[in-house]
């Protein structure tokens, strides 16, 4: 990692722990900073806080007391999920103290160039595709960021021979100052996280920070089919490389049933294992990013003929008596379920339901023509059943949970059907995470007799 001294002797507040906060505090301590850690969870039973306390850091737990700012604070590193209306963040902003996230620190110490991927949907799939394509061509990628591997931990191990492939949320990008990826990828922009950002405009500005420090020596891979992405990329410094599923562009596109890059046919769409039109967008973005990184067509083909999806994201589980099972538990909103349903032509048995956020499901109606059976669970079960009835779906079943939904869906299906878990809702009414919900689905599929 690069040796930096800008934090030596500085007082740094790390706000919020979890994986990223703990790793950030640990690194800052190594870099010579006086680290103050604040986490709202009580100290008792907080293993991460106790670990940092044992390292000699000041740890304040159980809330966000403003007296922390009675002493001079030079920099704040906050957990991305902590909102900007948090009282400590507000004080820092008023005092014009920089408020950063750990991806900024990761960039500062990384010896490796960075490919940064952002967007409302498809980030994890695209990040994983880029990682696997680079690996297939022996390019030494290191996957990091919002995908589960903390960026500051990965960056400490990165060398000039590596490439950091980093998934980036709007929350993370808001807390950047000099962060500069060699290749940025902006997939799409839809209404999401408005409780955090306030408006779609502010959400888009946060995403567009991925471009801010790039120069003419860098690249920006952008979705030519998304008007908002194209507007946000107007006037940026990096060389723009577009991708499109609808037209020929000077980048990655579809033509004559082939994935192409700059007049070169790479692979027939029929050879690609990963289902769904939305995944073709992810594939094109990944192809553009890796071609700019010098990856061979052979490596791209190797990945696209074997990669069946990221876990919980339209993940193919297997086939049983002619039924194909897909786990799309990551579909925690209507838009994601729309995309999942669009991936299949007909005969879908849909498993859906979860946390009730007060919304209706009318936006699913145009996408339910291929659904023959709906099995619902969770708080939104009745709302989903009303929507399904409006869509003309005759076979409806309400069950207690995902585990019970699987055998019911199997009994109500027949050979040739797709059994799809795509809840269109968050999981928190019944499960801690969407991952837990998806794992229960997978387990239930494997238990079918």
TrEMBL record:
Keywords annotated in UniProt: ATP-binding, Cell cycle, Cell division, Cell shape, Cell wall biogenesis/degradation, Cytoplasm, Ligase, Nucleotide-binding, Peptidoglycan synthesis
Highest taxon listed in the record's lineage: Bacteria
Residues reported to bind ATP: 119-125
UniProt KW rRNA processing keyword: no
GO terms for MF: ligase activity
Domain called Mur ligase central: residue spans: 117-290
Entry's family note: Belongs to the MurCDEF family.
Annotated PANTHER family: UDP-N-ACETYLMURAMOYLALANINE--D-GLUTAMATE LIGASE (PTHR43692)
Entry protein name: UDP-N-acetylmuramoylalanine--D-glutamate ligase
Source organism: Sutcliffiella horikoshii
GN (gene name): murD
